[in-house]
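Minutes, methods subgroup
Present: GH (chair), OT, SY

1. OT presented the first of two proteins processed in the latest run. Sequence and C-alpha coordinates recorded below as shown on screen.
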Amino acid sequence: MAIFVTGTGTDVGKTFFCALFMAKYAAKMGIKYFKPIQTGEDSDRVHVMNLTGLNEKYFLKNYYTFDVPASPLLASTLAGVEIDTEELTRHLYSIRSEKILVEAAGGLYVPLKKSYYNLELISQSEIPTVLVASTKLGTINHTLLSFEALKKASIQCLGVYFIGPENPLRSDSIQTVLDATGMNLLGTFLLPEYRLSRQEFLEKVAGEFDLKEILPKLLSP
Protein backbone atom coordinates (compact mmCIF):
# COMPACT_ATOMS: atom_id res chain seq x y z
CA MET A 1 0.00 0.00 0.00
CA ALA A 2 1.25 3.48 -0.85
CA ILE A 3 1.46 6.20 1.80
CA PHE A 4 1.12 9.92 1.21
CA VAL A 5 3.55 11.79 3.45
CA THR A 6 2.21 15.24 4.18
CA GLY A 7 3.05 17.83 6.78
CA THR A 8 1.62 20.54 8.97
CA GLY A 9 3.54 23.08 6.88
CA THR A 10 6.62 23.63 4.76
CA ASP A 11 10.00 22.52 6.14
CA VAL A 12 8.58 20.52 9.04
CA GLY A 13 10.51 17.38 8.10
CA LYS A 14 8.55 15.44 5.44
CA THR A 15 11.63 14.80 3.33
CA PHE A 16 13.69 13.86 6.38
CA PHE A 17 10.98 11.41 7.47
CA CYS A 18 11.02 9.85 4.00
CA ALA A 19 14.80 9.57 4.17
CA LEU A 20 14.61 7.87 7.57
CA PHE A 21 11.97 5.44 6.33
CA MET A 22 13.81 4.69 3.10
CA ALA A 23 17.18 4.23 4.78
CA LYS A 24 15.84 1.62 7.17
CA TYR A 25 13.28 -0.22 5.06
CA ALA A 26 13.64 0.45 1.31
CA ALA A 27 16.10 -2.31 0.48
CA LYS A 28 14.52 -4.75 2.93
CA MET A 29 10.96 -4.21 1.70
CA GLY A 30 11.36 -2.90 -1.84
CA ILE A 31 9.90 0.52 -1.02
CA LYS A 32 10.20 3.37 -3.52
CA TYR A 33 10.15 7.15 -3.07
CA PHE A 34 8.07 9.46 -5.24
CA LYS A 35 7.66 13.21 -5.11
CA PRO A 36 5.13 14.03 -7.86
CA ILE A 37 5.73 17.79 -7.84
CA GLN A 38 9.09 19.37 -7.06
CA THR A 39 9.55 23.14 -6.87
CA GLY A 40 12.94 24.77 -6.49
CA GLU A 41 16.36 23.63 -7.63
CA ASP A 42 17.06 21.86 -4.31
CA SER A 43 15.60 18.45 -5.24
CA ASP A 44 14.10 16.46 -2.37
CA ARG A 45 14.48 13.29 -4.44
CA VAL A 46 18.23 13.92 -4.71
CA HIS A 47 18.39 14.89 -1.04
CA VAL A 48 16.83 11.58 0.06
CA MET A 49 19.08 9.69 -2.35
CA ASN A 50 22.21 11.40 -1.02
CA LEU A 51 21.31 10.92 2.64
CA THR A 52 20.41 7.26 2.30
CA GLY A 53 22.99 6.22 -0.29
CA LEU A 54 20.33 4.09 -1.96
CA ASN A 55 20.47 3.09 -5.61
CA GLU A 56 18.45 5.13 -8.10
CA LYS A 57 16.13 2.16 -8.66
CA TYR A 58 14.37 3.04 -5.40
CA PHE A 59 13.39 6.49 -6.67
CA LEU A 60 10.65 7.36 -9.12
CA LYS A 61 11.07 10.46 -11.27
CA ASN A 62 9.13 13.62 -10.49
CA TYR A 63 5.96 14.09 -12.52
CA TYR A 64 6.54 17.85 -12.58
CA THR A 65 9.69 19.84 -11.80
CA PHE A 66 9.81 23.64 -11.57
CA ASP A 67 12.81 25.85 -10.86
CA VAL A 68 11.10 28.49 -8.71
CA PRO A 69 10.93 27.59 -4.98
CA ALA A 70 7.27 28.49 -4.52
CA SER A 71 3.86 26.86 -4.44
CA PRO A 72 3.23 24.52 -7.39
CA LEU A 73 0.55 26.97 -8.59
CA LEU A 74 2.94 29.92 -8.76
CA ALA A 75 5.94 27.89 -9.94
CA SER A 76 3.95 26.27 -12.76
CA THR A 77 2.36 29.58 -13.77
CA LEU A 78 5.78 31.22 -14.06
CA ALA A 79 6.95 28.26 -16.15
CA GLY A 80 3.92 28.57 -18.43
CA VAL A 81 2.64 25.11 -17.48
CA GLU A 82 -0.68 24.03 -16.00
CA ILE A 83 -0.50 21.00 -13.73
CA ASP A 84 -2.86 18.31 -15.01
CA THR A 85 -4.31 17.22 -11.68
CA GLU A 86 -6.71 14.75 -13.29
CA GLU A 87 -3.87 12.88 -14.97
CA LEU A 88 -1.77 13.02 -11.80
CA THR A 89 -4.66 11.72 -9.71
CA ARG A 90 -5.22 8.82 -12.11
CA HIS A 91 -1.54 7.92 -11.91
CA LEU A 92 -1.48 8.05 -8.12
CA TYR A 93 -4.68 6.04 -7.90
CA SER A 94 -3.13 3.39 -10.15
CA ILE A 95 -0.12 2.94 -7.84
CA ARG A 96 -1.97 3.10 -4.52
CA SER A 97 -1.50 -0.64 -3.89
CA GLU A 98 2.29 -0.47 -4.36
CA LYS A 99 4.90 0.10 -1.65
CA ILE A 100 5.63 3.76 -2.35
CA LEU A 101 6.19 6.79 -0.14
CA VAL A 102 4.56 9.71 -1.93
CA GLU A 103 5.78 13.05 -0.61
CA ALA A 104 3.44 16.01 -0.98
CA ALA A 105 4.76 19.41 -2.07
CA GLY A 106 4.24 21.30 1.18
CA GLY A 107 1.21 21.26 3.48
CA LEU A 108 -2.37 20.29 2.85
CA TYR A 109 -3.55 23.65 1.57
CA VAL A 110 -0.66 24.32 -0.78
CA PRO A 111 -2.28 25.05 -4.18
CA LEU A 112 -1.44 22.96 -7.22
CA LYS A 113 -3.68 25.05 -9.44
CA LYS A 114 -6.39 27.61 -8.76
CA SER A 115 -8.79 26.32 -6.09
CA TYR A 116 -7.13 22.89 -6.08
CA TYR A 117 -4.89 21.86 -3.18
CA ASN A 118 -2.81 18.94 -1.97
CA LEU A 119 -5.80 17.97 0.13
CA GLU A 120 -7.88 17.26 -3.00
CA LEU A 121 -5.04 15.35 -4.63
CA ILE A 122 -4.62 13.06 -1.61
CA SER A 123 -8.36 12.53 -1.26
CA GLN A 124 -8.96 11.72 -4.91
CA SER A 125 -5.95 9.42 -5.04
CA GLU A 126 -7.43 7.40 -2.15
CA ILE A 127 -4.02 7.00 -0.55
CA PRO A 128 -3.83 7.10 3.27
CA THR A 129 -1.51 9.63 4.81
CA VAL A 130 1.08 10.05 7.52
CA LEU A 131 1.15 13.52 9.03
CA VAL A 132 4.60 14.90 9.84
CA ALA A 133 4.66 17.63 12.49
CA SER A 134 7.29 19.81 14.12
CA THR A 135 8.40 19.63 17.74
CA LYS A 136 8.64 23.43 17.86
CA LEU A 137 6.34 25.92 19.57
CA GLY A 138 3.11 26.31 17.58
CA THR A 139 2.86 22.66 16.58
CA ILE A 140 -0.36 22.08 18.53
CA ASN A 141 -2.31 24.59 16.46
CA HIS A 142 -0.77 23.53 13.14
CA THR A 143 -1.24 19.82 13.80
CA LEU A 144 -4.83 20.07 15.01
CA LEU A 145 -5.81 22.18 12.01
CA SER A 146 -4.16 19.71 9.65
CA PHE A 147 -5.87 16.77 11.32
CA GLU A 148 -9.27 18.47 11.09
CA ALA A 149 -8.69 19.13 7.38
CA LEU A 150 -7.88 15.45 6.79
CA LYS A 151 -10.89 14.37 8.82
CA LYS A 152 -13.24 16.71 6.95
CA ALA A 153 -11.95 15.38 3.62
CA SER A 154 -12.44 11.77 4.81
CA ILE A 155 -8.75 11.00 4.31
CA GLN A 156 -7.42 8.11 6.37
CA CYS A 157 -4.67 9.38 8.67
CA LEU A 158 -2.40 6.54 9.76
CA GLY A 159 -0.76 8.63 12.46
CA VAL A 160 1.55 11.51 13.26
CA TYR A 161 5.34 11.59 13.38
CA PHE A 162 7.15 14.47 15.11
CA ILE A 163 10.51 15.80 13.90
CA GLY A 164 12.56 18.69 15.21
CA PRO A 165 14.80 19.93 18.01
CA GLU A 166 14.33 19.16 21.66
CA ASN A 167 12.51 21.81 23.68
CA PRO A 168 10.86 21.88 27.13
CA LEU A 169 7.36 21.95 25.64
CA ARG A 170 7.79 19.00 23.27
CA SER A 171 6.28 16.26 25.44
CA ASP A 172 3.30 18.38 26.48
CA SER A 173 2.65 19.46 22.88
CA ILE A 174 2.70 15.88 21.63
CA GLN A 175 0.40 14.63 24.37
CA THR A 176 -2.02 17.51 23.81
CA VAL A 177 -2.24 16.65 20.11
CA LEU A 178 -2.80 12.95 20.81
CA ASP A 179 -5.46 13.64 23.43
CA ALA A 180 -7.32 16.03 21.12
CA THR A 181 -7.23 13.87 17.99
CA GLY A 182 -6.82 10.25 18.99
CA MET A 183 -4.14 9.92 16.32
CA ASN A 184 -1.54 7.17 16.52
CA LEU A 185 1.88 8.41 17.57
CA LEU A 186 4.25 6.86 15.03
CA GLY A 187 7.38 8.25 16.64
CA THR A 188 9.59 11.24 17.32
CA PHE A 189 13.01 12.08 15.92
CA LEU A 190 15.06 14.78 17.63
CA LEU A 191 17.30 16.67 15.25
CA PRO A 192 20.78 17.78 16.32
CA GLU A 193 21.77 21.42 15.91
CA TYR A 194 24.17 20.60 13.08
CA ARG A 195 23.68 19.07 9.62
CA LEU A 196 24.13 15.31 9.66
CA SER A 197 26.60 13.64 7.32
CA ARG A 198 25.47 10.48 5.54
CA GLN A 199 27.41 8.30 8.00
CA GLU A 200 25.95 10.11 11.00
CA PHE A 201 22.48 9.97 9.49
CA LEU A 202 22.67 6.21 8.91
CA GLU A 203 23.99 5.69 12.44
CA LYS A 204 21.08 7.73 13.80
CA VAL A 205 18.66 5.65 11.75
CA ALA A 206 20.11 2.42 13.08
CA GLY A 207 20.16 3.67 16.63
CA GLU A 208 17.03 5.78 17.01
CA PHE A 209 14.46 5.39 14.23
CA ASP A 210 11.38 3.22 14.66
CA LEU A 211 12.84 0.95 17.33
CA LYS A 212 9.60 -1.04 17.62
CA GLU A 213 9.40 -1.35 13.81
CA ILE A 214 5.77 -0.25 13.64
CA LEU A 215 6.07 1.80 10.45
CA PRO A 216 6.38 -1.11 7.97
CA LYS A 217 2.94 -2.30 9.11
CA LEU A 218 1.48 0.85 7.58
CA LEU A 219 2.33 -0.49 4.14
CA SER A 220 0.14 -3.54 4.65
CA PRO A 221 -3.29 -3.25 2.99
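2. SY then presented the second protein from the same run.
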Amino acid sequence: MFSSGATSFGGTSTGFSGFSSVNSTNNLGLGNTDNPMKDIEVQSPPEDTVSAVRFSPKADFLIASSWANDVRCWEVQENGQTIPKAQKTHAGPILDCAWHDDGSKVFTASVDKQCKVWDLNANQDMQVAQHDGPVKTCHWVQAPNYSCLMTGSWDKTLKFWDLRQSNPILTLQLPERCYCADVVYPMAIVGTAQRGIICYQLENQPSEYKRIESPLKYQNRCVSIFKDSKKNGQPVGFALGSVEGRVAIHFIQPQNPKDNFTFKCHRSNGTTANIQDIYAVNNIAFHPVHFCLLSTVGSDGKFSFWDKDARTKLKTSEQLNLPITSCCFNSKGNIFAYASGYDWSKGHEYYNPQVKPKILLRSCADELKPRKGK
Protein backbone atom coordinates (compact mmCIF):
# COMPACT_ATOMS: atom_id res chain seq x y z
CA MET A 1 0.00 0.00 0.00
CA PHE A 2 0.99 3.62 -0.26
CA SER A 3 2.90 5.11 2.62
CA SER A 4 3.37 8.67 3.78
CA GLY A 5 6.99 8.25 4.80
CA ALA A 6 9.82 10.23 3.20
CA THR A 7 11.84 8.55 0.46
CA SER A 8 15.01 9.52 -1.35
CA PHE A 9 14.25 10.16 -5.02
CA GLY A 10 17.78 10.74 -6.35
CA GLY A 11 20.09 8.23 -7.97
CA THR A 12 20.34 6.79 -11.45
CA SER A 13 18.22 4.55 -13.60
CA THR A 14 18.32 0.87 -12.91
CA GLY A 15 18.31 -2.01 -15.35
CA PHE A 16 15.22 -4.06 -16.06
CA SER A 17 15.25 -7.84 -16.00
CA GLY A 18 13.66 -10.90 -14.46
CA PHE A 19 10.18 -10.32 -15.82
CA SER A 20 7.18 -12.12 -14.44
CA SER A 21 3.68 -11.52 -15.70
CA VAL A 22 0.04 -11.48 -14.72
CA ASN A 23 -2.69 -12.17 -17.22
CA SER A 24 -6.43 -12.23 -16.60
CA THR A 25 -9.24 -12.74 -19.05
CA ASN A 26 -12.21 -10.40 -19.23
CA ASN A 27 -14.53 -10.59 -22.20
CA LEU A 28 -15.56 -6.94 -21.98
CA GLY A 29 -14.99 -3.82 -24.04
CA LEU A 30 -12.48 -3.93 -26.90
CA GLY A 31 -10.42 -7.08 -26.51
CA ASN A 32 -10.72 -10.19 -24.42
CA THR A 33 -8.09 -9.47 -21.80
CA ASP A 34 -6.79 -6.61 -19.70
CA ASN A 35 -3.16 -7.70 -20.22
CA PRO A 36 -2.82 -9.58 -23.54
CA MET A 37 0.92 -8.82 -23.83
CA LYS A 38 1.55 -10.40 -20.40
CA ASP A 39 3.36 -7.30 -19.17
CA ILE A 40 4.05 -6.45 -15.55
CA GLU A 41 1.19 -4.79 -13.69
CA VAL A 42 1.93 -1.79 -11.50
CA GLN A 43 0.73 -2.42 -7.95
CA SER A 44 -2.12 -0.32 -6.47
CA PRO A 45 -3.09 1.60 -9.65
CA PRO A 46 -5.53 4.55 -9.43
CA GLU A 47 -9.23 3.80 -8.98
CA ASP A 48 -10.20 5.79 -12.09
CA THR A 49 -8.73 6.34 -15.55
CA VAL A 50 -5.12 7.51 -15.73
CA SER A 51 -4.63 10.88 -17.44
CA ALA A 52 -0.82 10.79 -17.60
CA VAL A 53 2.10 8.49 -16.75
CA ARG A 54 5.62 9.91 -16.44
CA PHE A 55 8.99 8.37 -15.57
CA SER A 56 11.48 10.39 -13.54
CA PRO A 57 14.33 11.87 -15.60
CA LYS A 58 16.80 10.72 -12.93
CA ALA A 59 15.77 7.27 -11.69
CA ASP A 60 13.16 4.59 -12.23
CA PHE A 61 10.33 6.20 -10.32
CA LEU A 62 6.96 6.37 -12.05
CA ILE A 63 4.10 8.79 -11.41
CA ALA A 64 0.52 8.65 -12.66
CA SER A 65 -2.24 11.25 -12.42
CA SER A 66 -5.87 10.20 -12.65
CA TRP A 67 -9.53 11.12 -12.77
CA ALA A 68 -9.75 9.77 -9.21
CA ASN A 69 -8.32 13.16 -8.10
CA ASP A 70 -4.95 11.69 -7.13
CA VAL A 71 -1.36 11.38 -8.27
CA ARG A 72 0.65 8.33 -7.24
CA CYS A 73 4.33 7.43 -7.24
CA TRP A 74 6.02 4.02 -7.49
CA GLU A 75 9.57 2.78 -7.39
CA VAL A 76 10.32 0.38 -10.26
CA GLN A 77 12.80 -2.31 -9.22
CA GLU A 78 15.33 -4.07 -11.43
CA ASN A 79 13.10 -7.14 -11.70
CA GLY A 80 10.26 -4.95 -12.98
CA GLN A 81 8.18 -5.15 -9.83
CA THR A 82 6.77 -1.91 -8.42
CA ILE A 83 6.66 -0.54 -4.90
CA PRO A 84 3.94 2.06 -4.16
CA LYS A 85 5.61 4.98 -2.39
CA ALA A 86 3.09 7.78 -1.78
CA GLN A 87 0.17 9.71 -3.22
CA LYS A 88 -1.41 13.18 -3.11
CA THR A 89 -4.83 14.52 -4.05
CA HIS A 90 -6.58 17.52 -5.60
CA ALA A 91 -10.17 18.67 -5.19
CA GLY A 92 -10.90 17.50 -8.76
CA PRO A 93 -9.57 15.15 -11.44
CA ILE A 94 -5.89 15.62 -12.27
CA LEU A 95 -5.41 16.05 -16.02
CA ASP A 96 -1.61 16.13 -16.22
CA CYS A 97 1.56 15.61 -14.22
CA ALA A 98 5.22 16.46 -14.79
CA TRP A 99 8.62 16.04 -13.17
CA HIS A 100 11.06 18.69 -12.01
CA ASP A 101 14.31 18.21 -13.93
CA ASP A 102 16.15 17.04 -10.79
CA GLY A 103 13.60 14.29 -10.09
CA SER A 104 12.81 15.55 -6.58
CA LYS A 105 9.43 17.18 -7.26
CA VAL A 106 6.24 16.51 -9.21
CA PHE A 107 3.77 19.01 -10.65
CA THR A 108 0.06 18.31 -11.07
CA ALA A 109 -2.61 20.13 -13.12
CA SER A 110 -6.24 19.75 -12.12
CA VAL A 111 -9.83 20.46 -13.02
CA ASP A 112 -9.93 22.35 -9.68
CA LYS A 113 -8.13 25.20 -11.55
CA GLN A 114 -4.90 24.72 -9.60
CA CYS A 115 -1.44 23.33 -10.10
CA LYS A 116 0.49 21.92 -7.16
CA VAL A 117 4.11 20.99 -6.55
CA TRP A 118 4.77 17.80 -4.58
CA ASP A 119 8.12 17.54 -2.83
CA LEU A 120 8.67 13.79 -2.83
CA ASN A 121 11.41 13.66 -0.21
CA ALA A 122 9.39 15.68 2.30
CA ASN A 123 6.06 14.25 1.03
CA GLN A 124 4.56 17.75 1.14
CA ASP A 125 2.54 19.51 -1.53
CA MET A 126 1.45 23.11 -2.05
CA GLN A 127 -0.39 25.17 -4.64
CA VAL A 128 1.88 27.00 -7.09
CA ALA A 129 -0.43 28.05 -9.94
CA GLN A 130 -4.01 29.21 -10.47
CA HIS A 131 -6.23 29.60 -13.55
CA ASP A 132 -9.81 30.68 -14.20
CA GLY A 133 -10.63 27.30 -15.71
CA PRO A 134 -9.44 23.69 -15.48
CA VAL A 135 -5.68 23.32 -15.98
CA LYS A 136 -5.01 20.86 -18.82
CA THR A 137 -1.20 20.76 -19.00
CA CYS A 138 1.88 21.40 -16.86
CA HIS A 139 5.56 21.31 -17.82
CA TRP A 140 8.78 22.28 -16.05
CA VAL A 141 11.01 24.64 -18.04
CA GLN A 142 14.71 24.50 -17.19
CA ALA A 143 16.59 27.22 -19.09
CA PRO A 144 20.21 28.34 -18.58
CA ASN A 145 19.12 31.66 -17.06
CA TYR A 146 15.75 30.82 -15.48
CA SER A 147 13.41 28.01 -14.47
CA CYS A 148 9.64 28.02 -14.23
CA LEU A 149 6.44 26.02 -14.46
CA MET A 150 4.41 26.34 -17.67
CA THR A 151 0.66 25.72 -17.36
CA GLY A 152 -1.99 25.61 -20.09
CA SER A 153 -5.68 25.96 -19.30
CA TRP A 154 -9.16 25.84 -20.72
CA ASP A 155 -9.35 29.54 -19.76
CA LYS A 156 -7.38 30.19 -23.01
CA THR A 157 -4.15 31.22 -21.31
CA LEU A 158 -0.62 29.89 -21.07
CA LYS A 159 1.08 30.95 -17.83
CA PHE A 160 4.64 30.78 -16.55
CA TRP A 161 5.30 30.59 -12.80
CA ASP A 162 8.28 31.23 -10.57
CA LEU A 163 7.60 28.87 -7.66
CA ARG A 164 8.67 31.59 -5.22
CA GLN A 165 5.89 33.96 -6.34
CA SER A 166 2.12 33.73 -6.11
CA ASN A 167 1.49 35.55 -9.41
CA PRO A 168 2.59 34.37 -12.85
CA ILE A 169 5.75 35.94 -14.26
CA LEU A 170 4.17 35.85 -17.72
CA THR A 171 0.71 35.22 -19.16
CA LEU A 172 0.18 34.57 -22.88
CA GLN A 173 -3.25 34.54 -24.46
CA LEU A 174 -4.22 31.48 -26.50
CA PRO A 175 -6.67 31.61 -29.41
CA GLU A 176 -8.67 28.80 -27.81
CA ARG A 177 -8.66 26.31 -24.92
CA CYS A 178 -5.40 24.44 -24.36
CA TYR A 179 -5.85 20.76 -25.27
CA CYS A 180 -2.26 19.51 -25.30
CA ALA A 181 1.30 20.77 -24.93
CA ASP A 182 4.92 19.67 -24.79
CA VAL A 183 8.23 21.27 -23.79
CA VAL A 184 11.76 20.36 -24.88
CA TYR A 185 13.92 23.40 -24.22
CA PRO A 186 14.15 25.77 -26.05
CA MET A 187 10.87 24.80 -27.76
CA ALA A 188 7.29 24.57 -26.55
CA ILE A 189 4.30 23.44 -28.63
CA VAL A 190 0.69 24.06 -27.62
CA GLY A 191 -2.32 22.52 -29.36
CA THR A 192 -5.68 24.20 -28.80
CA ALA A 193 -9.34 23.67 -29.60
CA GLN A 194 -10.32 24.44 -33.19
CA ARG A 195 -7.11 22.71 -34.36
CA GLY A 196 -4.79 25.52 -33.33
CA ILE A 197 -1.02 24.90 -33.06
CA ILE A 198 1.41 27.46 -31.65
CA CYS A 199 5.18 27.14 -31.39
CA TYR A 200 6.96 29.10 -28.64
CA GLN A 201 10.65 29.81 -28.15
CA LEU A 202 11.76 29.71 -24.52
CA GLU A 203 15.20 31.37 -24.66
CA ASN A 204 15.64 34.45 -22.45
CA GLN A 205 11.88 34.93 -22.08
CA PRO A 206 9.11 32.74 -23.52
CA SER A 207 7.48 34.24 -26.60
CA GLU A 208 5.37 33.11 -29.53
CA TYR A 209 7.50 31.96 -32.47
CA LYS A 210 4.91 31.00 -35.07
CA ARG A 211 1.39 29.70 -35.55
CA ILE A 212 1.09 26.58 -37.64
CA GLU A 213 -1.81 25.42 -39.75
CA SER A 214 -2.73 21.97 -38.52
CA PRO A 215 -1.75 19.19 -40.94
CA LEU A 216 -4.68 17.17 -39.53
CA LYS A 217 -8.35 17.77 -40.29
CA TYR A 218 -9.74 16.86 -36.89
CA GLN A 219 -9.38 17.82 -33.24
CA ASN A 220 -5.94 17.90 -31.61
CA ARG A 221 -5.56 15.14 -29.03
CA CYS A 222 -1.86 14.97 -28.12
CA VAL A 223 1.48 16.44 -29.13
CA SER A 224 5.09 15.39 -28.54
CA ILE A 225 8.27 17.24 -29.55
CA PHE A 226 11.04 15.31 -31.28
CA LYS A 227 14.76 16.01 -31.46
CA ASP A 228 17.12 15.97 -34.44
CA SER A 229 18.02 12.29 -34.79
CA LYS A 230 21.04 12.87 -37.04
CA LYS A 231 22.93 15.90 -35.71
CA ASN A 232 22.81 17.82 -32.45
CA GLY A 233 19.81 16.42 -30.60
CA GLN A 234 18.03 19.78 -30.56
CA PRO A 235 14.21 19.91 -30.81
CA VAL A 236 13.23 20.37 -34.46
CA GLY A 237 9.57 19.39 -34.74
CA PHE A 238 6.60 17.61 -33.26
CA ALA A 239 4.25 14.68 -33.70
CA LEU A 240 0.57 15.60 -33.46
CA GLY A 241 -2.17 13.07 -32.79
CA SER A 242 -5.88 13.59 -33.49
CA VAL A 243 -9.22 12.02 -32.63
CA GLU A 244 -9.31 10.63 -36.16
CA GLY A 245 -6.62 7.93 -35.85
CA ARG A 246 -3.91 9.88 -37.58
CA VAL A 247 -0.50 11.30 -36.63
CA ALA A 248 1.36 14.18 -38.32
CA ILE A 249 5.15 14.43 -38.25
CA HIS A 250 5.91 18.14 -38.63
CA PHE A 251 9.27 19.93 -38.74
CA ILE A 252 9.27 23.59 -37.67
CA GLN A 253 11.80 24.42 -40.42
CA PRO A 254 11.76 21.46 -42.84
CA GLN A 255 14.78 21.06 -45.12
CA ASN A 256 12.44 19.56 -47.67
CA PRO A 257 8.63 19.95 -47.82
CA LYS A 258 8.40 16.17 -48.10
CA ASP A 259 9.94 15.88 -44.61
CA ASN A 260 6.47 16.59 -43.21
CA PHE A 261 3.98 13.74 -43.53
CA THR A 262 0.99 12.11 -41.85
CA PHE A 263 0.16 8.47 -41.26
CA LYS A 264 -2.86 6.48 -40.17
CA CYS A 265 -2.87 4.49 -36.95
CA HIS A 266 -5.28 3.08 -34.38
CA ARG A 267 -7.74 2.03 -37.03
CA SER A 268 -9.22 -1.38 -37.75
CA ASN A 269 -11.34 -2.92 -40.44
CA GLY A 270 -15.01 -2.69 -39.52
CA THR A 271 -17.72 -5.25 -40.04
CA THR A 272 -18.79 -3.59 -43.30
CA ALA A 273 -16.61 -3.78 -46.42
CA ASN A 274 -14.43 -0.72 -47.08
CA ILE A 275 -15.36 0.76 -43.70
CA GLN A 276 -12.76 1.35 -40.99
CA ASP A 277 -13.29 1.74 -37.26
CA ILE A 278 -11.38 4.90 -36.33
CA TYR A 279 -10.05 5.61 -32.84
CA ALA A 280 -8.43 8.58 -31.14
CA VAL A 281 -4.65 8.74 -30.73
CA ASN A 282 -4.50 9.41 -26.99
CA ASN A 283 -0.76 9.86 -26.44
CA ILE A 284 2.58 9.96 -28.27
CA ALA A 285 5.98 9.39 -26.63
CA PHE A 286 9.42 9.64 -28.26
CA HIS A 287 12.27 7.36 -27.27
CA PRO A 288 14.84 9.17 -25.06
CA VAL A 289 17.88 7.60 -26.79
CA HIS A 290 16.83 6.87 -30.37
CA PHE A 291 15.10 10.12 -31.34
CA CYS A 292 13.61 8.63 -34.51
CA LEU A 293 11.54 6.11 -32.53
CA LEU A 294 8.14 6.78 -31.01
CA SER A 295 5.13 5.07 -29.53
CA THR A 296 1.45 5.84 -30.03
CA VAL A 297 -1.46 4.61 -27.92
CA GLY A 298 -5.12 4.76 -28.77
CA SER A 299 -8.75 4.29 -27.86
CA ASP A 300 -8.60 0.98 -29.74
CA GLY A 301 -6.73 -0.54 -26.77
CA LYS A 302 -3.46 -0.94 -28.67
CA PHE A 303 0.03 0.56 -28.62
CA SER A 304 2.34 0.77 -31.62
CA PHE A 305 6.06 1.43 -32.02
CA TRP A 306 7.28 3.41 -35.06
CA ASP A 307 10.48 4.57 -36.76
CA LYS A 308 9.60 8.00 -38.19
CA ASP A 309 12.79 8.34 -40.23
CA ALA A 310 12.26 4.98 -41.93
CA ARG A 311 8.49 5.65 -41.99
CA THR A 312 7.99 2.15 -40.68
CA LYS A 313 5.84 0.51 -38.03
CA LEU A 314 7.99 -1.70 -35.82
CA LYS A 315 5.28 -3.36 -33.72
CA THR A 316 1.60 -3.24 -32.81
CA SER A 317 0.36 -4.79 -29.60
CA GLU A 318 -2.51 -7.14 -29.11
CA GLN A 319 -5.75 -5.46 -28.15
CA LEU A 320 -6.59 -4.68 -24.53
CA ASN A 321 -10.17 -4.68 -23.32
CA LEU A 322 -9.94 -0.95 -22.49
CA PRO A 323 -8.51 2.09 -24.31
CA ILE A 324 -4.88 3.02 -23.63
CA THR A 325 -4.86 6.59 -22.34
CA SER A 326 -1.19 7.44 -21.74
CA CYS A 327 2.35 6.11 -22.20
CA CYS A 328 6.00 6.96 -21.53
CA PHE A 329 9.55 5.59 -21.61
CA ASN A 330 12.00 5.59 -18.74
CA SER A 331 15.19 7.65 -19.10
CA LYS A 332 17.20 4.76 -20.53
CA GLY A 333 14.48 3.81 -22.99
CA ASN A 334 14.32 0.16 -21.95
CA ILE A 335 10.99 0.31 -20.08
CA PHE A 336 7.70 1.28 -21.71
CA ALA A 337 4.81 2.18 -19.41
CA TYR A 338 1.22 2.38 -20.63
CA ALA A 339 -2.11 2.89 -18.85
CA SER A 340 -5.48 1.36 -19.73
CA GLY A 341 -8.82 2.77 -18.62
CA TYR A 342 -12.16 3.81 -20.03
CA ASP A 343 -11.98 7.13 -21.92
CA TRP A 344 -15.72 7.54 -22.55
CA SER A 345 -15.14 7.57 -26.32
CA LYS A 346 -18.03 5.11 -26.78
CA GLY A 347 -20.38 6.83 -24.35
CA HIS A 348 -21.69 5.96 -20.91
CA GLU A 349 -23.36 2.71 -22.03
CA TYR A 350 -19.93 1.09 -22.53
CA TYR A 351 -18.64 2.03 -19.09
CA ASN A 352 -18.24 -1.02 -16.87
CA PRO A 353 -17.15 -0.23 -13.29
CA GLN A 354 -16.06 -3.84 -12.85
CA VAL A 355 -13.22 -3.38 -15.36
CA LYS A 356 -10.54 -1.48 -13.48
CA PRO A 357 -7.76 0.76 -14.82
CA LYS A 358 -4.26 -0.69 -15.08
CA ILE A 359 -0.72 0.53 -15.58
CA LEU A 360 1.55 -1.94 -17.36
CA LEU A 361 5.33 -2.06 -17.78
CA ARG A 362 7.02 -3.66 -20.78
CA SER A 363 10.68 -4.43 -21.39
CA CYS A 364 11.09 -2.85 -24.83
CA ALA A 365 14.83 -2.70 -25.59
CA ASP A 366 14.69 -5.56 -28.11
CA GLU A 367 11.56 -4.23 -29.86
CA LEU A 368 12.71 -0.64 -30.28
CA LYS A 369 15.73 -0.36 -32.53
CA PRO A 370 16.12 2.00 -35.49
CA ARG A 371 15.84 0.41 -38.90
CA LYS A 372 19.20 -0.05 -40.64
CA GLY A 373 20.13 1.46 -43.97
CA LYS A 374 17.89 4.50 -43.92
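Chair's summary of item 2: Residues 224 and 239 are 5 Å apart (CA to CA).
Next meeting: continue with the remaining queue.
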